[in-house]
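Appendix B, record 7
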Amino acid sequence: MPTNVQTNSSSIVINRTLRNTYQLLSATLLFSGLMAYLSMYLRLPYFGLLITLGGYFGLLFLVTRLRNSAFGILAVFALTGFMGLTLGPIVGAYTTSFSNGAELVGMAMTGTAVIFLSLSVYAITSQKDFSFMSGFLTAGIVVAFLAGIAAYFFQMPALSLAVSSAFILLMSGLILYETSNIIHGGETNYIMATVTLYISIYNLFLSLLHLLGVFSGDD
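Structure tokens (predicted):
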């Protein structure tokens, strides 16, 4: 096959993956938001760390197994819908515990959107390859995840604050990495790309919300 034909074929696959990823991501973010609102409306209690992690990893395993079938899309909505339900009680706690809770949530949502869109546009327009970040991001996320669990169980506010700060940097890096991975052909499965970007946005929002709550000076 001629080189130019191969290049054109590769470009078509990359563009299709990128388009499908952002379409599915938009739909899952909307669905997740609706589930969060439903959770708040029903005044569901906080799910707890163990239930949240168990549901997340269980549904993530399901998505991974079904990623090459049509049922994979349903699994993505199951995962993002569940994460939305877990988010509702957290957002509700901020809106009721802080006098400016609604403002904090709005600021966290705006900050998340600005960071995600800015990094995505930069990765797409610059065409830079961020694959070199893979090892650092993997190690960093594992360390931050374990530190976050320690901070939760041992009630260590300073460590929790450090973890939130680290997650903002790590999730920002993950957005750059995954977007770059798509446009350079490293990720051709839009279902897995969607999940990666969704989790980046989810953790970015929670981390920003936590930091804004800490520095708001309103308990």
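Remarks on this record: The chain has one domain: 3-215. The mean pLDDT is 92.
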